[in-house]
Design goal:
It contains 16 helices and no strands. By secondary structure, the protein is an all-alpha fold. It has three domains: about 200 residues, no CATH class; about 120 residues, no CATH class; about 40 residues. Helix 6 crosses helix 7. The protein starts with a helix and ends with a helix. GO terms for molecular function: alpha-1,6-mannosyltransferase activity; GPI mannosyltransferase activity. Pfam families: Mannosyl_trans2. It is a multi-pass membrane protein.
Amino acid sequence: MVSITVDKAPRTLLVACFLAWKALLLTIAIISPQPGYDTSTRLLFKGHGIRNVEVSSPDVYSPPGTHAPAQGLPDLVMRLLLALTRWDTIYFASIAERGYVYEQEWAFGWGFLKFLSFLGTNIPLTTEKLYNVLIHGIILANVSHLISIILLFQLALALQTSASNGKVYFAFICAALHIFTPAGIFLVAPCPEALFSLLSFAGYLLYVYSWIDTGLQYHGPIQDLYLILSGFCFGLAATVRGNGLLSGIIYFYDALIWLIVSAERLVRIRVFNISALRPELHAQLSSIRQRRLPATVTAGMLVGIGFAGPQYIAFQQFCGSHILEKRPWCHAFPPSIYSWVQSHYWNVGFLSLLSCQTYNEHAFLHPETKSEAPDQDRNAKGLQDNMDFDINRAFE
């Protein structure tokens, strides 16, 4: 019965699954005990008219008469805002409301927060910008997630060249898995992940459309447009999350292929014997037209601009000529505030989890790797000693 429904109306079924899943997550968020161990959310709302709803101590909310009322928001909405404004979302809401103030806040995507700030300012739902930002963020996250599901469905269809009956079913499974993603509540709360997935899937779909129905041949400017638009989407994604820069690898690959073909034509010999490994790849190389290269370079530049643009804005703020005492990262090459903030304030970054400092965590999580001696009793004792040592080191 399900397969028949998938064949007839796959998108409708995806929307139904999406709504049911979101309803479950929202219900869990609303009925979850509050405020919990973290009162940061209520401290954030202090001064923005939060009402005394299940507040455990009088110093975490505004005394009566000091601040404006809660703008007529229903208790259910306020409870939902309290539940979904946690962890990084507190940073997102604060920055979107009043802009970047502290250096460490530049770890969070400039594009996403500026867009939230624009919505909160120009499309008011209440008289408090903070509430506007949060409500718009929740709406944006859920709408973006839904659109990204449909885009992924279309992408899975476009990537399949066969016309088999399982084509739609396969695409449906791919999209359905994106509904029930482990991200869970993060795609409900005002977080950038949903918008990032929307822009990324849109970029990949447009990139596929730049090749689709053309075989190995290049047909004209419409493919150029698709290619440039894909770079534009990836560039926007890079402003939302820094790892969107990795999407530009596909343009680097295309440019590299063109260089290989050009080199082979120039010296009239096969520079890289790729056909020995993948004969179909070399056939593709010989069919690429030089005219596609400008669009490829343009798309790649758009991705780079999306990544570097916000960092240039930060550079002007912290390292401009009017700044007397410049920050250490201003003298680095490249002067990336993103890399500096990730390593200096958050102790994260590329390959940071492979450092010697994380050895104890790996040893603690995988103690079975130390138990290879034949004597089981001795193994158990040695394993316990190793675990005790790791625990003691972890809390030093």
